[in-house]
Design brief:
Blueprint: H1 2-36, E1 40-43, H2 52-59, E2 69-73, E3 79-83, E4 97-99, E5 105-107, E6 115-120, H3 126-140, E7 148-153, H4 158-165, E8 173-175, H5 179-185, E9 192-196, E10 202-206, H6 212-223
Parallel strand pairs: 1-3, 6-7, 7-8
Antiparallel strand pairs: 2-3, 4-5, 6-9, 9-10
């Protein structure tokens, strides 16, 4: 009986050593695989490093266009992705005039010298609905700043928008029945987030936003310009 127990103990010890060695081998392989994974660099058009979220936002800025990311493998094996600037950025924003759903007149000609933050959306758009709380938080940062205006532009009628706002807070100035304004900007896919600088040129052109710090920094940068 003692011999049987001793043999059993030896087998258990041997099995334990085998399992330990197996896990050690697996861990070593994982470390080796990680070490062999090439480094990746993400750059914008000016050569500035991007976060993952900034990269995705820029890459999807014009979904219908050719992929704007150029892939290069450097001498050390590093993979570099460099994005071209969205073609709309740097161009003059189309002027428009429209009343808000509260009857307040908005004219981009009258707003020259101010930073305009535009959001094109519509009721029932999943991506639009998802980002509204964060848009509200963004607008709240500039609540007391008269040099920036946050304007939401939708194809829905003013009546539909007023009804929507009874159940969902949206702190942008609201313009309805505005498909013609959306057509002026000539984009595909909602939502669309645009920042127009004090000089009337588009400085930020994105669809859904992941890099909210970048969105905010663009607004702040434009406000700091003379």
């Amino acid at each position: 009986m003692l011999d049987v127990m001793a043999k059993l103990d030896n087998r258990i010890i041997a099995l334990g050593k085998y399992i330990s060695l197996s896990f050690g081998a697996i861990f070593a392989l994982q470390v080796f695989a990680f070490a062999q994974t090439p480094k990746t660099i993400l750059l914008d058009a000016d050569g500035n490093h991007l976060t993952d979220n900034e990269f995705v936002d820029l890459r999807l800025a014009n979904r219908a266009d050719k992929d704007p990311a150029a892939r290069t493998v450097l001498e050390d094996g590093t993979i570099q992705f460099k994005l071209v600037r969205p073609r709309q950025e740097g161009t003059a924003a189309p002027p428009f005039n429209a009343p808000t759903i509260d009857g307040k007149a908005i004219s981009t000609n009258d707003l020259k010298g101010k930073v305009l933050v535009l959001n094109f959306w519509f009721i029932g758009c999943p991506g639009c609905m998802e980002e509204i709380p964060k848009l509200n938080s963004l607008a709240a940062k500039y609540h007391d700043n008269d040099n920036v205006r946050f304007i939401a532009i939708a194809p829905n009628t003013p009546e539909e928008l007023r009804k929507f706002l009874t159940r969902q807070k949206f702190d942008y100035e609201m313009v309805g029945s505005a498909l013609s304004i959306a057509n002026l900007f000539n984009f595909s896919g909602y939502p669309r987030n645009i920042v127009i600088g004090k000089d009337g040129r588009i400085v930020y052109w994105r669809t859904t936003v992941r890099a909210w710090d970048k969105f905010n920094s663009v607004i702040q940068s434009e406000l700091n310009k003379n």
